[in-house]
Write a structure and sequence with these properties.
By secondary structure, the protein is an alpha+beta fold. The protein has helices at residues 2-44, 64-84, 90-101, 106-117, 120-126, and strands at 47-52, 55-60, 130-141, 147-158, 162-176, 187-196, 199-204. It folds into 2 domains: 2-47; 65-204, VirB8 protein (Nuclear Transport Factor 2, Chain: A), CATH 3.10.450.230.
Length: 207
């Protein structure tokens, strides 16, 4: 009888030990699952997905200060491409200039008004002239606000009889503004000026 009681006591201790081990294991698994869940949620906060052409593309969120040089250069590049890419079409010119002027202050509007008053755009239309631009580089100084920049580009002016290549160097400053559909980078170009715009070469086109 005592042997039987001893066996029962031993079995009970084994069951109790196994039960405690199982409970500890369950608690460990639950804690690990909670930890991984919070880590996953925290990681998802730094990810966004952009729908483009029916495909979900993953993007990553970051502090704006980490992207200022990249966004600033792209803002300056976009402005110059819009302002200086011109076709012999009044509506196309107006559409491009309108988009460009959302990215800059009155200093760009003054340059546009001067060119328009001097008949530059009318000459493009009447002469069937295309103008394109290639932005070679943009230097931005983010050590002092507003951020100073200098843009180096090359213009191609395509006439029916010739193609003229010009150098273009401009400078200005970038000020922070609210982002919008018309200004996705959240910068505004101010005190913009053209400091060099000279002919490099002209080649004749075959008729």
């Amino acid at each position: 009888m005592f042997k039987k009681m001893k066996n029962i006591d031993t079995a009970f201790r084994h069951i109790r030990g196994f039960t405690m081990l199982l409970i500890v294991g369950c608690v460990f698994i639950c804690c690990f699952a909670l930890y991984k869940s919070f880590s996953l949620v925290s990681g998802m906060k730094n990810k966004i997905y952009i729908l483009a052409n029916g495909k979900a593309l993953e993007a990553f969120a970051a502090e704006r200060k980490d992207n200022i040089p990249v966004e600033a250069r792209d803002h300056v590049k976009t402005f110059h491409e819009l302002f200086f890419t011109l076709d012999p079409d009044d509506k196309a010119i107006t559409a491009n200039i309108t988009k460009a002027l959302y990215l800059a202050d009155a200093s760009a509007k003054r340059v546009y008004d001067d060119l328009k008053e001097n008949g530059y755009y009318a000459g493009l239309i009447s002469g069937n002239v295309n103008q394109t631009i290639t932005v070679d580089s943009v230097a931005v100084d983010i050590n002092e606000y507003p951020f100073r920049f200098r843009c180096y580009a090359t213009q191609s002016i395509i006439r029916p009889t010739s193609i003229t290549t010009r150098s273009l160097v401009t400078e200005g400053a970038l000020r922070n503004v609210s982002r919008s559909d018309n200004n996705s980078h959240g910068f505004l170009i101010e005190r913009w000026s053209i400091i060099d715009n000279r002919d490099l070469k002209t080649i004749s086109r075959k008729q």
